[in-house]
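Repro:
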Amino acid sequence: MAALGIDIGGSSVKVALHDGAVIQTARSASYQRPDRETLASAIGDAIGSLDAPNDPSIRVGLCLPGRHDEAGSAIECSFNLPCLEGWAFGALLRSALGFDPARWRVVSDVHAATIDIVRSKGLDGRVAVIAIGTGVGLGVCEQGQMCSIGSRGIGHLGQVDG
């Protein structure tokens, strides 16, 4: 069964279709401080470039910038994408995909990068990754497990002006 990865960045959306290996990737057009409608459209356009099944049984991984709220159900603060603030993850996915995926998971963008680096490089022990893009984030992995502070993660540290 294929899985769909969605990476919402500060300036574009990247998507990948995966089934043990990457099948296809795509990227949306660039945007600056989009509203929710524009962001959902960018996600849909990027996914539309893939041969992804329009099927609620597809597994979806969503990574996005910002600090999660205490419940872990929405972004509480996102400097580069304020449209994400308070937008429940399930509602965001429904708006972008047109359906509610049966299985989905949300991680911060820097957590996704940290997991990728740890696994692809075969690292173990304690690993810290600082990611600098339109935002600045920190991921810490201990013996292959991401460290977090409750549902908030460590993740979001700030933004890069410009």
